[in-house]
């Protein structure tokens, strides 16, 4: 048997179906970015496209599951920065009359780990100081960057603004305002693009139809263009500049490919690119790695905790160790369901992905018992697991300290004007937000349409101040 026949035989074994149709565009991933692109293609009568999704559902890191008699969001659950105009997702949520809870981040109770409430004056003094130092930190970092002195991480810029978290209360306030928002410690995020809890108008989606409902409704007319359970394993550009995309259920051909995978998946090298992605692209992707953000929902027989605050933050625990609690005893949330949400971030979250439900319940009970003498063990638990999900490999992206305009240009630029990339990681100050993923998907689709229809295509490589030829 000659080598050509052997190659054809092996291809048939591993990819049992080779689709004969050549598509103008293959969209890889049916999360909000992929859906946004698909909707835009459909609205512009670009019909020769297909969406390939590894999961058995549409939505990516936006996933709803039943728990304790309500619908829980395991992924994105907040509508961030709803006061920004335009805001595609918030507009859709109003169009479909979604049930939303307006978040009041000022309604936070700080408690010492023994259960004693932190003095209100100390709380206000600490939060005001942090708010002022945070704003000063932003100005310092931006000024350095504009003067060409380079970017810095948030911890460095906070030190420059004379913020020293040398008390348990300061550390607790810092965790609530910074880690909870960014998903990482201040050392691991860029000072300029970093966020702060409560900096914009936010809502929590509590609609039983789920967070993804408005987008799924908008995508109904192109639903037959989405193939589920098709996990991409290889993307190959051929000598004729066209592409073959290899999946677990067959091989697809296209002139253009839009990749919407998370940076966790792209940086893991689980997907083979032939030829390899250029260095300018992989370096830029390395500047926006995924963070670790765990949601642990717990249901109890009775609500033994303080039910009036929306958030309870523990001062005195190790940083991030069951320090952040969210209550749901409000009429626009889940009243009477006796549900608490513990949020873990960073390495603590990563560690708890490897621990059993029983072990988590025991640790949760010990922490709560220390604060509330009448605490009981949870009767049910539900946990997110995005960091161990092979199709996510993290919760959302983080902008690494020192990220610059060259990096953003490289993130935004397609390879050879035909291999396109998009996702929430391109969102700069709005990184990690579901609404930005949707909008960026739509914007990338418009760029592809312009390239296909009027041949207004980007150069093969981005213009950079420091350019590597690979």
Number of helices: 13
What is the alpha-carbon Rg in Å?
A: 23 Å
| Shape category | globular
Helix content: 25-40%
Cα end-to-end separation: 38 Å
- Would you count the extended β strands for me? 19
* Share in β-strands: 15-25%
Mean model confidence by pLDDT: 94
Written account of the structure:
- This protein has 470 residues and is α/β, with parallel strands linked by helices.
- Helix content is 32%, strand content 20%.
- The protein is built from 13 helices and 19 strands.
- Strands 1, 2, 9, 10, 11, 12, 13 and 19 form an 8-stranded mixed beta sheet that branches.
- Strand 1 (18-28), helix 2 and strand 2 (49-52) form a beta-alpha-beta unit.
- Helix 2 runs parallel beside helix 13, helix 4 (120-146) crosses helix 5 and helix 4 (120-146) crosses helix 6 (168-182).
Short characterization:
The chain is α/β, with parallel strands linked by helices.
Which short descriptors sum up this protein?
470 residues, alpha/beta, eight-stranded mixed β-sheet, six-stranded mixed β-sheet, 13 helices, 19 strands, disordered N terminus
List the helices and strands and how they pair.
Layout: H1 3-14, E1 18-28, H2 32-43, E2 49-52, E3 64-67, E4 70-73, E5 78-79, H3 88-95, E6 100-102, E7 108-112, H4 120-146, H5 154-160, H6 168-182, E8 203-205, H7 213-218, E9 226-227, E10 232-237, E11 243-247, E12 250-259, H8 263-268, E13 272-274, H9 279-286, E14 293-299, E15 311-315, E16 324-327, E17 339-345, H10 346-352, H11 357-371, E18 380-383, H12 405-412, E19 419-421, H13 434-454
Parallel strand pairs: 1-2, 1-12, 2-9, 7-15, 10-13, 12-19
Antiparallel strand pairs: 3-4, 5-8, 6-8, 10-11, 11-12, 14-17, 14-18, 15-16, 16-17
Helix pairs in contact: 2-13, 4-5, 4-6, 9-12
